[in-house]
């Protein structure tokens, strides 16, 4: 179904456009406003904006259009005007506005334009999701809280569909952190994803409140999940979700085994969680060495310092010197705010958006979104022969 916004300061023109658009097949909702600044409906659910432009207001109008296009990537625009000249058309088309229609608008031309836009959207291949794995080889590092809040912030900042995938299986805490109730097993979800359409796939996930964040965590099967969940099954699950969501954030168990390697191999980025203590830094160093041996390029691994304390004896420069990689982000040690959010089943920004830890999660998400995914080096084939070495890492 198609949702449309019409903005026009001329009431007669606005009412006429409303009657035309409302009679077009496939249009479900039409919202009318005097100008772009007065829009107060949920733009995230809008497909097309029809707006009036004239040579007197074109510069101001196109600034707003540009801001909307940057914020809402899937929004399409149709410009209308009683006047037409090369300068006006040039200024409008420079902003990549889909179409320009001369007034008075002819109903068949408007219907054809809307159909062309929606048909083009259907024909576009679904872009593969950007997949981010959050990992630490030691428990208690704040891996899950980082995954939860990063996923929430990515959804808030991009308004795109984000799946928060809990692959910690029976030990996962994501459902508790966000106060959602798992309804499926990993086996049942994987089977349904293979044969379902996108709308049904969304129902398998729990939508987190009024956001574009979806949570996929699994029932506790008292060990059955981990017994039957093979690396091939994990890969199949992640690849199915890649065709549905824009971002996938994966929380994992704090071990490196065949299952975790399958997660690493299908992820664009690995967010490696460390802390400012010798044990954690040493473990991060081991992880980075093992990633290199597995053929995972350094550009795919982002080191995040959690529970960061400004006046710690160990400094960020010491971490860089030991591990050989830059610190991607630092998450401050703000236990009280974080535990309040967990106890209430909310993301930190919902509890205290101006706290230092909320701002850190916001910055982390912003940097993750802005990574140049196209320029990341391709994963090399990982070496199964190193599994014995990987299992010894935690000893």
Please summarize what this structure is:
With 395 residues, the chain is of the alpha/beta class. The chain is built from 17 helices and 13 strands.
Give a description of the structure:
With 395 residues, this protein is α/β, with parallel strands linked by helices. It folds into two domains: 2-123, Rossmann fold (3-Layer(aba) Sandwich); 130-391, Rossmann fold. Helices cover 44% and strands 18% of the residues. The chain has 17 helices and 13 strands. It has helices at 11-22, 58-71, 86-93, 107-123, 143-158, 174-177, 186-195, 198-204, 224-228, 231-242, 258-266, 278-293, 316-323, 335-344, 348-351, 356-370, 387-391; strands at 2-7, 27-33, 48-52, 76-81, 99-102, 130-135, 162-167, 206-207, 213-216, 247-252, 269-274, 301-308, 327-332. The strands form two sheets. Strands 8-9-7-10-6-11-12-13 form an eight-stranded mixed sheet, sandwiched between helices. Helix 13 links the parallel strand 12 (301-308) and strand 13. Helix 5 packs across helix 16 and helix 10 packs parallel to helix 11 (258-266). It is elongated and about 70 Å long.
Structural class: alpha/beta
Rounded to an integer in angstroms, the radius of gyration calculated over CA atoms is 24 Å
* Assigned CATH class of the largest domain: Alpha Beta
Biggest sheet statistics:
8 strands, mixed
Give the distance, in angstroms, between the N- and C-terminal Cα atoms. 56 Å
Question: Helical residue percent?
Answer: 40-55%
The CATH homologous superfamily of the largest domain corresponds to P-loop containing nucleotide triphosphate hydrolases
Strand order of the largest sheet: 8-9-7-10-6-11-12-13
């Amino acid at each position: 179904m198609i949702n449309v916004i019409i903005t026009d300061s001329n009431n007669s023109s606005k009412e006429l456009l409303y009657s035309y658009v409302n009679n077009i097949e496939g249009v479900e909702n039409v919202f009318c406003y005097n100008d772009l600044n007065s829009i107060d409906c949920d733009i995230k659910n809008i497909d097309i904006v029809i707006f009036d432009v004239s040579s007197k207001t074109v510069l101001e109008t196109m600034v707003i259009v540009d801001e909307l296009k940057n914020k809402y990537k899937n929004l399409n625009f149709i410009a209308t005007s009683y006047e037409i000249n090369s300068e006006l058309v040039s200024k409008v088309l420079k902003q990549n506005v889909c179409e320009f229609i001369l007034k008075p608008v002819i109903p068949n031309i408007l219907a054809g334009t809307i159909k062309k836009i929606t048909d083009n959207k259907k024909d576009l291949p679904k872009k593969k999701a950007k997949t981010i794995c959050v990992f630490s080889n030691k428990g208690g590092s704040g891996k899950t809280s980082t995954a939860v809040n990063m996923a929430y912030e990515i959804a808030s900042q991009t308004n795109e569909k984000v799946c928060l995938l809990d692959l910690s299986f029976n030990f996962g805490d994501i459902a508790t952190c966000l106060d959602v109730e798992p309804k499926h097993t990993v086996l049942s979800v994987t089977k349904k994803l293979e044969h379902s359409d996108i709308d049904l796939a969304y129902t398998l996930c729990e939508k987190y409140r009024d956001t574009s964040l979806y949570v996929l965590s699994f029932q506790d099967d008292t060990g059955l999940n981990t017994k039957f969940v093979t690396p091939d099954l994990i890969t199949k699950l992640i690849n199915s979700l890649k065709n549905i969501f824009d971002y996938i954030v994966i929380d994992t168990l704090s071990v490196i085994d065949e299952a975790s390697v399958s997660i690493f191999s299908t992820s664009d980025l690995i967010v490696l969680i460390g802390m400012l203590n010798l044990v954690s830094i040493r473990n991060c160093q081991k992880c980075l060495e093992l990633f290199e041996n597995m053929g995972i390029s350094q550009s795919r691994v982002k080191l995040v310092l959690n529970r960061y304390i400004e006046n710690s004896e160990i400094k960020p420069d010491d971490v860089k010197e030991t591990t050989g990689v830059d610190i991607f982000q630092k998450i401050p040690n703000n236990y009280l705010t974080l535990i309040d959010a967990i106890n209430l089943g909310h993301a930190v920004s919902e509890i205290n958006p101006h706290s230092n830890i909320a701002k850190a999660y916001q910055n982390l998400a912003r940097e993750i979104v802005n990574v140049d995914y196209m320029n990341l080096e391709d994963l090399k084939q990982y070496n199964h022969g190193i599994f014995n070495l990987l299992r010894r890492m935690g000893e």
